[in-house]
Amino acid sequence: MTVPADVTVVGIGADGWAGLAEPGRAAVRGAEVVLGGPRQLALVAGHTDAEARAWPSPLLPALPELFAGLRGRRVCALASGDPMHYGLGATLARVLGPVEVLTHPSSIALACARMGWAAESVEVVSAVGRPLAAVRRVLAPGARVLVLSEGAGTPGALATLLADDGWGDSALTVFEQLGGPAERRLDGTARHWAHPPGDPLNLVALTCDGPGRALTPGLPDDAFEHDGQLTKREVRAVTLALLGPRRGELLWDVGAGNGSIALEWLRAHPTCRAVAVEPDPARAARIAANADALGVPGVRVVEGRAPDALDGLPTPDAIFIGGGVTADDVLPRCWEALPAGGRLVANAVTVESEGVLGAARARLGGELTRLSVARAAPVGGFTGWRPAMPVTIWSVAKP
Fold first, then answer.
1. Are strands 7-12 and 75-80 parallel, antiparallel or unpaired?
2. What CATH code is carried by the domain that includes residue 141?
3. Any idea what the Cα angle at residue 128 is, between residues 127 and 133, rounded to 5°?
4. Domains in the chain: how many in total?
5. 182 in a domain, yes or no?
6. Domain limits at 393?
7. Is the sign of the CA dihedral 205, 211, 215, 220 positive or negative?
8. For residue 3, what pLDDT is reported?
9. pTM
């Protein structure tokens, strides 16, 4: 949409008007309408004659109509801290187009300063309107993590999550009203966190102490809750390598079983997206549970059978078919859904499904690979090799 005249986004901290630089003060004083949350509007009350309006809820769908009604007026939109870092500024720029943004030190910058942490060494996870389980993705021995809290209960919930997952010795520091006159710091460990819920405006600094997971594909099979319907570790590593996840891409995991391919795809980068299509209700529920456990709760689970369950899904960048390749129209529908340059990987363990992949390769090209994996196991008092069923993998890129 076209931006109304004179929209300025002003970052403001917990120190309110006292900490606001003169350009921000001038934008507030010169506005005809000031938009913000109740807390932000209270911080500038008495410093402007502008009409004060609280943001509507839900915010995003109301923005076009809101700003259309403000066309031609001088508007100041208040945002917490740096409006372009997990803030309102990026949302308004996406909806309205370029707007003037006056930044303020973010809570992330202030927390790094208080902790003596280099900002580039820190992982940031937002729990504001997002599942707290996403923090699991960044947990690693010695990692420094900042968690933007949803409210007063977030620190306690985070401590419980960490202790339950074996990270109980991790150090937690909670900063309340960071940068303001009422700033308060609370310290402890996840296992012994005894502080009651405090100010809802808080941030948690976490120094991780516990077990870690490999970053590369091929997590141990027991990293997933499953009923045996699982792409095994070695085959999974090769399959993910052939799928080749890239920043921001979307995967369809068709016949997802317990979700191991989709979830390892999501672990490749925070911007990766995945849709897991699975007809069995118990397995579909298990995918969501596994997603939480691995810190990638953003997976979209579609309970249904392909190809009908594929209707209406967003265009994928890559598709994995782990089950149902012999079903009518599954492979053709997946191929049709791929854009030019998209990748498709399909696995087969039966003679019938292998035949489908061989015929597909003859028509469409690509590569066939057969993997045979054997694991050492006791044989009486000795050790022998127990082979798993060989897996045939077809991988192809659409011209």
1. parallel
2. 3.30.950.10
3. 25
4. 3
5. yes
6. 221-397
7. negative
8. 55
9. 0.90
